Amino acid sequence: MENRHTRNRHCTICQRGFTLLEMLVATLLITAMIAWLTPSFQALGHNSVLNSEMSRLRSAFALARHTAIAQRTKVTVCPANKHLTACTPTWGDALLVIKGDASEGIAAERIMRVFPGQPAAYTTYSRGWQRISYNALGHTSGYNGSFDICATREEGKRLVLSQLGRLRVQSTPIGC
Question: How many whole angstroms from its chain centre is CA 149?
Answer without folding.
Answer: 9
